[in-house]
């Protein structure tokens, strides 16, 4: 079933066989093989659950309604056409995988003077919310002097014991009182029997500690940016063992956090330190438009990392001349299980595409063949979807999935090429993205990559704060930090950069460790947002210091980095975080 209400990737996934999806990098995400159901993101009007019940009283779909005409629906494959036929349903996407992308950092970010002396800021009266891999709630940095927790609520989406939050269908919500009872046992073993949430990767613990840890385990030396903020934590579920969370889990987490903040009547700074490479990278996925909408609700600020893809050689771009071909070469390393390539172009342009296999054989396809096509070249099967623009998507996408054919285990290795032949050229520009670097081996890469437009999704959302990384020790841009578009007038991404190399952060089961990545630059800005909200909203200096106004204040306060003459720019945005200069006095 191909339908323009469905995004290209979902159309291809529904058309693929179960064997093809299992081999793929991305097509299987959202499919529950045991129940043979799909989870999808829906943009709609009206009360979707009520509308479905009226039109299809016999279906048993699981529906989680979100704010502003968004919903998450789990339904059988055979019922997908029923959903699409509803006039109140505008667009449907499949979930995407999300990949998790202090002392010196505080000084570099102009925070030390704000945290000491008369009128010191600590984040008191503000919620810091982290959506991540969970938290080690036993760590002293998240507890008060008398040993109680600073966490006001914790939703573990992966838990099967206990009750889900009101309005949600998965996981277990733990209250502050329940966490305090677990801490009062004095032992992790007994505590986990009461509140079994654990951060198995340590990522969420480190992120939360940088944003708002109080440094009790280090005598205050390694405290975070907003050490007296109250904490909200969501541990994202990972539906597949050993896998990663999905965009659907993230959207539910955002809905939960904003609801909590409204109920408590407190401003909230929300930290998202992960992302995906699938999409046009222009802020128009349903996840990104949903975040933009939620950024207009309540006294909230969303802070998102731009990812670590800039030096992964996973992006290529160029311009196709009107009268000559262009060739983009890429290598596939040994033992590469699967690989996806997105090609995004202007719909006004018409191309012929030829894909060259390492053995010299060729496959050609072009604009006249919309929808799904399958090709076999060497020992590799190609699933190709030639898409159309959509109501929420201006660009045209050609999606190519390379999977091993038959009994083969890996995609054919060697030098591949994509040749673009002009048919009718108006704009000529194109961009190509490979699947996330963590799904590729080191040899799978474009031979002539460009680091521009490597920010991960959802950091391209237009009403959120996108954060890149720099090395505070050398005062220089971190080469891995995801970049924005070099020629986009507005919005400029990243908004700014923060320390993201060898940052000291709390470790699971106590102590500290050094961490690197935009994941750990992002919470410096989240904590800073909490300080600005305290100064403005809680202390009464500016009751409107949240959302876009707070973002503008960070722009104004950012300081220049050596080597950059033009600001803002696609590499470091408006410059390096300097919180004290962002306060208008």
Describe the overall structure.
This protein is an alpha+beta fold and 585 residues long. Helices cover 20% and strands 27% of the residues. A hairpin with a 4-residue loop joins strand 3 (62-65) and strand 4. The termini are far apart.
Unreliable sequence segments: none
Global Rg: 24 Å
Structural class: alpha+beta
Number of strands: 29
* Percent of residues in β-strands: 25-35%
Q: Roughly how much helix do the residues carry, as a percent range?
A: 10-25%
Taking all residues together, what is the mean pLDDT? 92
What topology emerges from the helices and strands here?
Blueprint: H1 8-15, H2 18-23, E1 31-32, E2 37-44, H3 48-55, E3 62-65, E4 70-76, H4 80-85, E5 89-93, E6 99-100, H5 103-108, E7 127-132, E8 151-156, E9 172-175, H6 176-184, H7 188-194, H8 203-212, E10 230-235, H9 247-264, E11 268-272, E12 274-275, H10 286-294, E13 300-305, E14 315-319, E15 326-332, E16 339-345, E17 350-356, E18 362-366, E19 371-377, E20 380-386, E21 396-404, E22 414-424, E23 429-434, E24 445-446, E25 465-471, E26 476-477, E27 496-499, E28 503-506, E29 512-515, H11 518-538, H12 547-557
Parallel strand pairs: 7-10, 7-11, 8-10, 11-13, 13-25, 25-27
Antiparallel strand pairs: 1-2, 2-4, 2-5, 3-4, 6-12, 8-9, 14-23, 15-22, 15-24, 16-21, 16-23, 17-18, 17-22, 19-20, 20-21, 25-26, 28-29
Helix pairs in contact: 6-7, 8-11, 9-10
Task: Label this structure with key terms.
585 residues; alpha+beta; nine-stranded mixed sheet; six-stranded antiparallel sheet; 12 helices; 27% strand; globular
């Amino acid at each position: 079933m191909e339908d323009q209400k469905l995004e290209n990737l979902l159309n291809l996934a529904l058309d693929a066989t179960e064997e093809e999806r299992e081999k793929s990098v991305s097509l299987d995400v959202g499919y529950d093989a045991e129940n043979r159901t799909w989870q999808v993101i829906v943009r709609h009007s009206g009360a979707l659950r009520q509308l479905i019940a009226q039109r299809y009283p016999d279906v048993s779909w699981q529906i989680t309604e979100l704010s502003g005409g968004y919903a998450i629906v789990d339904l059988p494959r055979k019922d997908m056409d029923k959903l699409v036929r509803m006039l109140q349903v505008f667009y449907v996407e499949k979930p995407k995988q999300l990949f998790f992308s202090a002392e010196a950092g505080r000084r570099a970010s102009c925070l030390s003077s704000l945290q000491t002396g008369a009128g010191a800021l600590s984040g008191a009266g503000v919620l810091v919310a982290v959506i991540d891999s969970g938290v080690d709630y036993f760590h002293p940095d998240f507890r008060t002097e008398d040993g109680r927790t600073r966490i006001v609520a914790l939703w573990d989406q992966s838990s099967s014991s206990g009750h889900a939050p009101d309005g949600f269908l998965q996981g277990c919500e733990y209250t502050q009182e329940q966490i305090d009872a677990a801490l009062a046992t004095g032992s992790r073993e007994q505590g986990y029997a009461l509140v079994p949430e654990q951060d198995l990767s340590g990522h969420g613990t480190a992120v939360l500690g940088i944003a708002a840890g109080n440094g009790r385990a280090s005598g205050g030396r390694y405290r975070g940016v907003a050490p007296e903020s109250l904490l909200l934590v969501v541990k994202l579920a990972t539906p597949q063992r050993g896998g990663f969370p999905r965009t659907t889990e993230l959207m539910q987490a955002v809905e939960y956090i904003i609801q909590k903040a409204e109920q408590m009547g407190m401003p909230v700074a929300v930290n998202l330190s992960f992302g995906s490479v699938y999409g046009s990278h222009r802020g128009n996925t349903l996840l990104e438009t949903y975040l933009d909408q939620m950024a207009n609700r309540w006294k909230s600020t969303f802070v998102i990392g731009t990812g670590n893809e800039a030096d992964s050689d996973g992006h290529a771009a160029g311009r196709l001349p009107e009268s000559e071909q262009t060739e983009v070469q890429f290598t596939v390393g040994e033992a590469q299980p699967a690989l996806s390539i997105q090609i995004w172009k202007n719909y006004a342009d018409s191309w012929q595409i030829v894909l060259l296999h390492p053995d010299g054989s060729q496959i050609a396809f072009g604009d006249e063949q919309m929808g799904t096509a399958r090709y076999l070249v060497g020992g590799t099967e190609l699933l190709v979807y030639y898409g159309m623009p959509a109501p929420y998507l201006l660009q045209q996408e050609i999606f190519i999935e390379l999977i091993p054919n038959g009994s083969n285990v890996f995609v054919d290795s060697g030098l591949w090429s994509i040749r673009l032949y002009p048919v009718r050229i108006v704009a000529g520009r194109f961009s190509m993205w490979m699947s996330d670097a963590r799904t590729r081996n080191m040899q799978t890469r474009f031979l002539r990559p460009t680091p521009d437009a490597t920010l991960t999704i959802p950091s391209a959302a237009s009403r959120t704060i996108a954060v890149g990384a720099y090395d505070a020790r050398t005062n220089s841009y971190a080469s891995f930090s995801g970049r924005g578009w070099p020629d986009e007038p507005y919005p400029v991404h990243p908004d700014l950069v923060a320390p993201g190399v060898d940052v000291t952060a709390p470790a699971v089961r106590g102590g500290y460790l050094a961490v690197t990545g935009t994941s750990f630059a992002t919470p410096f800005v989240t904590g800073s947002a909490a300080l600005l909200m305290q100064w403005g909203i809680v202390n009464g200096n500016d009751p409107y210091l949240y959302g876009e106004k707070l973002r503008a204040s960070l722009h104004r306060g950012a300081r220049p980095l050596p080597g950059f003459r033009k600001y803002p720019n696609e590499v470091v945005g408006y410059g390096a975080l300097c919180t004290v200069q962002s306060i208008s006095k």
